[in-house]
Design brief:
Blueprint: H1 2-19, E1 39-43, E2 46-50, H2 58-61, H3 63-70, H4 73-79, E3 86-92, E4 96-103, E5 108-116, H5 122-131, E6 136-147, E7 150-162, E8 165-173
Parallel strand pairs: 2-3
Antiparallel strand pairs: 1-2, 3-4, 4-5, 5-6, 6-7, 7-8
């Protein structure tokens, strides 16, 4: 009887293993096309898009480059019924946002980036540890502004805690290429 149950279970296991097929899927690429992408909010000349990343942190790594590669403002302008002098387009993720203002011909006039809890460079962490012994960094924010696709001003706001005392420090960074200004 024991052998009968064992062989029955073995046959069932082999039969179910043989019925499994391996389905190979093709690579899926997601591009932000303003005509088909879900607009979270849209009011007159202001539009907000939810960013879909291929991997975590792709947008935050180079927000301006990501926008230039995956967003066609001319397509958005052509799709609209009305003409405006400028268009404010926001790109949002769970970690932050990029707000970009375009003129009526689709040229990027200015932008502002804001991201929370970014990974700080080793140099910044070493400087924090050296200059603020006993303090613990509990959060940070990266903020950058610029004209066109260049960043004019970039800085980190880092919140430090030591017991029941807290302070926020600001560390300015140099950035020229639209990337996070860490070295």
């Amino acid at each position: 009887m024991k052998n009968l149950i064992f062989y029955s279970l073995l046959v069932c296991f082999i039969a179910t293993a043989q019925s499994q097929e391996i389905t190979e899927l093709e690579e899926a690429r997601v591009f932000m096309n303003p005509v088909s992408e879900k607009i979270i909010a849209g009011e007159a000349d202001e539009f907000t898009f939810s960013v879909k990343e291929e991997y975590t942190g792709e947008f935050m790594q180079n927000p301006i480059g990501f926008m230039m590669n995956n967003f066609n403002v001319l397509s958005l302008i052509d799709h609209l019924d009305k003409d405006y002098d400028s268009y404010l387009v926001s790109f949002r993720t769970t970690k932050g946002a990029l707000n970009a203002e375009f003129d009526d011909e689709g040229e990027l006039k200015r932008h502002r980036q804001s991201f929370k809890d970014v990974v700080l460079s080793r140099k910044i962490m070493a400087d924090l540890y050296r200059d603020h012994k006993g303090w613990v960094a509990v959060g940070n924010k990266y903020i950058a502004r610029g004209n066109g696709d260049k960043i004019k001003k970039a800085y980190y706001k880092i919140k430090l805690v030591n017991g029941n005392r807290s302070q926020t420090i600001k560390i300015e960074q140099q950035a020229e290429d639209g990337r996070l200004a860490i070295d």
